[in-house]
Design brief:
Blueprint: E1 2-11, E2 14-24, E3 29-33, H1 40-47, E4 55-60, E5 63-64, H2 70-77, E6 80-83, H3 95-106, H4 111-124, H5 140-154, E7 159-163, H6 171-184, E8 190-194, H7 198-204, E9 207-212, E10 215-221, H8 222-226, H9 231-239, H10 249-254
Helix pairs in contact: 3-4, 3-5, 4-5, 5-6, 6-7
Length: 255
């Protein structure tokens, strides 16, 4: 569904990606890993056409998006549900209206139909009781779940893109978000999750892409990641004091 073909991108004179190539099927569960500043979020922005590469091609469903107009990109973006790290809820709207906003923008549903869909989506993520709460009244985990629901409401995405979805969350809420990400992929919709939290990545993903100095230095399965001989990846795992034999609930469920 998504193809990067020799993509390079720089911020001014600073190279971020250098001839990066990979392809992602719509049902795959991908984690993009790496230290801060290695271009992980940039990859998501490029997938959405929010930034354009300096060179190379980016294809979504076979269409090269690098020269698309903003109007053409809007149609393509509806295939991809995006949840950025900050969540970006409207502070002046309650939970119900935050979710309903996207439905009013992107659908022709009546107000009664919007009400029913909002209630159903919020119930799906355990937030049926929170419809009238304001963003400032939400915990970090609740805020992130509302952002995910709003992404669902905007369209029927074929694939989700998550930017550091558990960043800043306590272990309990991080586990809830990981479970939600995993559950939403059970119907065949894949995802790309950008994270520096290895434990969370292993809970949900089955393929791992590691970025370093603008290059893909690892692309493989969990088993390959654990047994890798790539020095930079080993150093990253060691820096995190990561236990490669830790229990991974999501992987167990899949098996």
């Amino acid at each position: 569904m998504i193809v990067f073909d020799r993509v390079s991108f720089s911020y001014g004179v600073k190279p971020v990606l250098q001839d990066v190539s990979f392809s992602i099927e719509g049902s795959e569960r991908i984690a993009i890993l790496g230290e801060s500043g290695e271009g992980k979020t940039t990859v998501l922005r490029l997938m959405l056409g929010l930034q354009k590469p300096d060179s190379g091609a980016i294809l979504v469903d076979g269409e090269d998006i690098t020269e698309k107009t903003e109007g053409e990109l809007r149609r393509i973006r509806l295939k991809l549900g995006i949840v950025f790290q900050e969540g970006a809820l409207f502070d002046s709207l309650d939970v119900k209206e935050n979710v309903a906003f996207c439905l009013r923008e992107y659908s022709r549903l009546s107000e009664d139909e919007i009400e029913q869909k909002v209630r159903g989506l919020l119930a799906k993520v355990g937030l049926g009781h929170a419809m009238n709460l304001m963003p400032e009244e939400l915990s970090g985990g609740m805020h992130r779940r509302v952002a995910i629901v709003r992404s669902l409401a905007a369209s029927e995405p074929r694939m989700f893109l998550y930017d550091e979805p558990t960043s800043g969350l306590d272990p309990v809420n991080a586990a809830l978000i990981c479970q939600l990400i995993y559950d939403l992929s059970k119907d065949g919709r894949g995802f790309v999750i950008v994270t520096h939290k290895m434990v969370d990545a292993l809970k949900v993903a089955t393929r791992f892409i590691f970025l370093k100095m603008g290059l893909v230095i690892f692309d493989g399965t969990r088993e390959a990641l654990i047994s890798t001989s790539v020095p930079e990846v080993i150093a990253f795992l060691n820096d995190l004091n990561f236990d490669v034999n830790a229990s991974v609930d999501g992987q167990k469920q899949e098996a």
